[in-house]
Amino acid sequence: MHLHEEPEPWSGFVLPLSIPDPSPRTRKVLIVGAGIAGIASALALAHELKPHEPNLQITIFERHDVLSTSGGAINLTPAAQRHLDRLGVLSKLDRQGADGGADVNEIELFSSRSGRSLGSIDFTDGNGNGVNGYKGRRVMRIVLSLAMLSVVERHPNIRILYGKKLARVTESHDDQTILHFEDKTSAAGDLVLGCDGVHSALRTTYVDSDRPSEYTGLSFLQTTIDTPPPPPPSSARTSTSRPSTSTSISGSTHTSTSRSSLRQTPSFTTHFNRSSSNIRPLSEPTTHMHPPPFHTTGLALSRHGDLLGSYCDRSHSTLFLAAMVQIPESLLPRYRLDTSPSSQYPNNDPRHRLAVHAALQEEMRSRFADAGHPWVRDVANLNTNWMLYPVYQVRPGGKWWRGQIVLLGDAAHAMPPRDESAAYALDDAIMFCRTLAHNRDESLPAIFSKYESLRRAPVEEAFNAAGRMWQTHRDMGFLEGRVKEWTMPWVLWKNRAVRNAAWKFDAYDV
After folding, report:
1. Compositionally biased, Polar residues: which spans (predicted)?
2. Which long-range contacts (CB under 8 A, 24 or more apart) does 486-489 make?
3. Rounded to two decimals, what is the model's pTM?
4. Cα–Cα dist 197/37, whole Å
């Protein structure tokens, strides 16, 4: 009598290269900070790790009670747009019409003294095509944040909790890290990502307490104004940030229309209403300014700092202005609206607010009102509410991880902003999450070390380059200012290959 053996259940089949982890374990990931790095990390984890770990749970803790609206407009390079596209965010921006940001082919540099063109930082090739299909984009930071949050809402395994200011960190007996918050609540997780920015509480209280942030000596003076759109150039500029999904709005020439488009998506409405009380209104439309000497984005160089102007909506009705200037640290209290309870001048004191605004306007006038270019003079004399944003950095060489906590973005390596600043945060998020997914069966220290070996050298090189670049924004004497103008075309040419490589870098190659 012969017994017939049952065939193997997978007989005749080829197993897939990647199948979900059959174990019932639940990996709990805690992310501190709901900025670009934090939200991008959550989305990247959902993309990279969820297929292998169906029970993945991701919680983002944001210290503010509402979504932060500070920071003005942000520049997205081709690399940043490509990363956002893969995370599902770029299509959300495209659907916002005018509010989705202004396409940027180049940043045009010119002399504020003479108006002479000094070259450009290009986001396209010689034929006007984007790098791998993507150009640059200038968009308000709040709009980008809302687009990222709307994608988060599609992932049931990701949640965001507001009003969670970190107090301290402990470790449990079962190898979990416990975050304790000032509201007396706590959360335990298997992995913690510190994405809480340049003044990171995770870095200063746990990972590397000897590495505080430090003021660079330079600050942004920022504002946004309503302005009539520029006349169209001789050749119709209908190209968009990428050829496939970006939608350009034509005929929309006033800000009220673009504001309404922001509220068309329900998920955007929810978050916008939560934070609208913090959004500073734009200045009244400015009709007596000379036309700006650039198509979309320009940088006026002077020996008293540099002035950036950039449209940040597709209808070119909103102009973002940012002066990069040297401000002594001793003057920062005079120029900032202090919201702390111990402040001598509470934030709602109208006298103090008026004094701060008057001081900042005088700072702009003293630096740029005598410029040779009329548009720069107009900006210097604007009756608008300038806001001060000091630039801080975190010196390289410190720790990026400890125990089950790893620092990403500015929390690990804050540097003065460059053209690709947002891309660095996105690179960190994507590269770490892919490293984690590819080595998920290894210990966290081993994974952290592999990520650090890939990331530290390029980041520290970028830090040094950013420091050299930012030295050109400090106050200069007459001769040094002329040398700055004379050598800028050569500097742009010399750095072109490095910039192009940055535009083409793909964090998904890890």
Report:
1. 268-280
2. 488/109, 488/118, 488/119, 488/301, 489/118, 489/119
3. 0.83
4. 9
- Of 331, 329, 305, which is closest to residue 216 (Cα–Cα)? 329
Read out DSSP for 395-461? -SSS--EETTEEE-THHHH-----TTHHHHHHHHHHHHHHHHHHTTTS-HHHHHHHHHHHHHHHHHH
Res 220: pLDDT: 93
| One-letter amino acid for residue 184 of the chain | K
Helix/strand/coil percent split, the chain, to 5: 35, 20, 40
How many other C-beta atoms are found inside a 10 Å radius of the C-beta of residue 92?
Answer: 23
Q: In the chain, where are the structural domains located? A: 28-509
Rounded to whole angstroms, the Cα distance separating 240 from 229 reads 17
What is the distance between the alpha carbons of residues 289 and 135, in angstroms, rounded to a whole number?
28
Helix (H) or strand (E) holding 188: strand 186-189
Confidence label for 452 from pLDDT (cuts 50, 70 and 90): very high
The pair of three-digit structure tokens given for residue 332, joined into one six-digit string:
């920062």
Q: How far is CA 63 from CA 79, 104, 140, 209, in A?
A: 29, 33, 21, 19
Q: Count Cβ atoms below 10 Å from residue 243 Cβ, excluding itself.
A: 12
Residues 379-424: tens digit of each pLDDT: 999 989 999 999 999 999 999 999 999 999 999 999 887 666 688 8
Instruction: Give the pLDDT confidence of 486-500 residue by residue, as tens digits.
Output: 999 998 998 888 888
Residue entry with tokens 């984007």: 130
State the DSSP H helix or E strand holding residue 117, giving kind and residue range, or none if neither: strand 117-122
For 47-104, the pLDDT digits (tens) are: 998 888 889 999 999 999 887 766 689 999 999 999 999 999 999 999 988 999 999 9
Taking a C-beta distance cutoff of 8 angstroms, is the pair 220, 281 a contact? no
- Rounded to 5 degrees, what are φ and ψ at 388? -95, 130
Task: Mention every residue, 6+ apart, whose C-beta is less than 8 A from residue 492.
Answer: 109, 118, 119, 120, 121
DSSP secondary structure string, 206-246?
A: II-TT---EEEEEEEEEEEEE-PPPPP-SS-----SSTTT-
25 pLDDT band, cuts 50/70/90, is low
**Among the listed residues 21, 20, 151, 42, the one whose alpha carbon sits nearest the alpha carbon of residue 432:** 42
